[in-house]
Design a protein that fits this description.
alpha+beta, four-stranded antiparallel beta sheet, 12 helices, 12 strands, 46% helix, ion channel
């Protein structure tokens, strides 16, 4: 084969391949152009003469309302601001309605059954959040044109497209972050529960022109949140848990001018209600437990001996620690003039108890250093009644004769002194009687010997001696009185010598008894006050009373 023929064959083959490639590209371009044409034709068909129609409700009979099916799925709670009374939530909102002017036959447009059209080109319901926060990101812009007034962002914050089906059913879905007002009650903080409501309704249509309904298939009253139904999109909040969420329909008069206004009609609204429960672990560990430990150290003030001299300093240190701790944690407490939080109430009561214990300690120290006579009523109450209650045995007991408290050593000394005095008095009386008897004998012998009968041996009659001795001897009652006087005279000099030390010991016993009494009282009062404060919360009561 000649080179010329070979070259011609190669060039012919290349030209044929190029022609085939261009033919395939042209066929593909024509096919793609045909598809675009079908969608464009369908869009032109739907929007033909619809620019003015989109301004009115899409109903055949204007006397009937258009029905809007509403559903809201909670994605998560972003923030709860107690001070500003605002809750920030994430919702998936869905609106469904039927537009009879937006229908077509799928076979006429290449089998297309669904079209996604921007909301600016269609009629959309003006469903807004009525209790929206004034600082919300979704604000009504300056309405300069009809397109702005019809835009979803201008009405409710939606920016997604509307899904239009061939039978006229339209669905509008959007993920929206709402900042709504919520009346937050911080009375039971940090064991509180909050019910927040979000009211959705039409801004310009009453119930006769637009009927807002809950979409079929949604759970009923007190339905649990999506997290309990196996949804993967729900995001847990670190501080709050969502117990349940409900959607309820109401008809309310939002703009009623007069009480008996015949022309004013109610507005159909759907209220989304959420029950939020605060997580308490953080607050218990960082706010309640440290405060309780600081308050319990006041018990050491009654255990520390009065002789140490550190009791007042310990009480002042505890009081200052509590004040500083309250100042550091005040920023974490929600501020409210209507309700006083339980935790703030617990702080205030603890500071009052610590201050009262400090004052009681000063009084006890004053008693401990006294050395004057104790009042009888105080002695009976403290050394007898309170001592039995706290099981304390006083060092000085009451003496039955004098009514004063004497210790065992003093009583033994007084008993020994009384016995020796009695012996000395008996010997003295016997010697005195003997001398008086002899003097009487000599006197009688000198005056008249005949008057005195003598015995046969010349001695004085024994009966006479016995009679004289019996006359001179005092009766037993007189001896008893003399003994009591001598005991009293022997006792009081010893008592006067030790009375200052005795009074001091009495007051020290009273101070120790009062320490025990106030220790028990502070434990009981502290426990009862804490329980009475925190049991006000329904969540705490549920732990003890299911």
């Amino acid at each position: 084969m000649s080179p010329l023929i070979f070259t011609f064959c190669v060039l012919s083959t290349c030209a044929l391949c190029s022609i085939l490639a261009f033919a395939e590209m042209d066929e593909s371009a024509q096919e793609h152009h045909g598809n675009l044409t079908q969608e464009q034709r369908l869009l032109d068909h739907l929007l033909q003469n619809y620019r003015t129609r989109r301004l009115i409700r899409p109903v055949k009979d204007l006397s009937k309302p258009i029905v809007i099916d509403f559903s809201a799925e909670l994605v998560g709670v972003a923030k709860v601001d107690e001070k500003e009374q605002i809750i920030k939530t994430h919702f998936w909102i869905r609106l469904d309605w039927n537009n009879p002017y937006m229908t077509w036959k799928p076979q006429d447009y290449g089998g297309n059954k669904v079209m996604n059209i921007p909301p600016e080109m269609l009629w959309v319901p003006d469903i807004v959040l009525y209790n929206k926060d004034s600082s919300s990101d979704f604000q009504l812009p300056s309405l300069k044109s009809a397109d702005d007034r019809l835009s979803l962002k201008a009405t409710s914050g939606f920016t997604t497209s509307v899904k239009v089906r061939h039978d006229g059913n339209q669905t509008w879905r959007a993920h929206i972050i709402y900042k709504s007002m919520c009346n937050i009650n911080v009375k039971y903080f940090p064991f509180d529960e909050q019910q927040c409501k979000m009211v959705f309704a039409s801004w310009s249509h009453d119930v006769n022109t637009m009927d807002l309904r809950k979409r079929k298939g949604l759970p009923g009253e007190k339905a649990v949140a999506k997290k309990d139904r196996g949804s993967d999109v729900f995001q847990e909040n670190e501080e709050w848990t969502v117990e349940w969420i409900t959607i309820d329909r109401h008809e309310l008069f939002f703009f009623r001018q007069k009480e008996n206004d015949c022309c004013d009609l109610p507005v159909a609204d759907l209220t989304v209600t959420m029950l939020l429960r605060r997580r308490t672990y953080y607050y218990v560990m960082s706010l309640i437990l440290p405060c309780t430990l600081i308050a319990c150290t006041i018990f050491l003030e009654f255990i520390l001996p009065a002789e140490s001299g550190e009791r007042v300093g310990l009480g002042i240190t505890i009081l200052l620690s509590m004040a500083v701790f309250q100042e550091l944690t005040s920023e974490k407490l929600p501020s409210s003039s209507e309700h006083f939080p339980l935790l703030a109430m617990y702080y205030s009561v603890s500071i009052m108890e610590i201050g009262t214990a400090l004052g009681a300690t000063c009084i006890i120290l004053n008693f401990h250093h006294r050395n004057t006579k104790m009042p009888s009523w105080f002695q009976k109450i403290v050394l007898e009644w309170l001592a039995k209650i706290v099981r304390y045995e006083p060092t000085y007991n009451r003496h039955p004769a004098s009514g004063d408290a004497l210790n065992d050593s003093t009583q033994k000394i007084m008993q020994s002194n009384t016995t020796s005095d009695r012996k000395r008095n008996d010997a003295f009386d016997l010697e005195r009687e003997s001398i008086e008897y002899e003097m009487d004998l000599f006197e009688e012998a000198r005056v008249g010997r005949d008057q005195v009968p003598l015995a046969q041996n010349g001695n004085i009659s024994t009966n006479h001696v016995t009679r004289k001795r019996s006359v001179k001897r005092k009766p037993q009652d007189s001896e008893t009185e003399t003994t009591e006087v001598q005991i009293s005279e022997a006792k009081f000099p010893l008592y006067d010598f030790n009375k200052e030390e005795f009074y001091k010991k009495q007051w020290q016993d009273a101070a120790r008894i009062l320490d025990r009494v106030l220790l028990l009282a502070s434990v009981v009062i502290g426990s009862v006050s804490a329980m009475s404060i925190f049991l006000q919360s329904p969540r705490i009561r549920e732990l003890f009373i299911p």
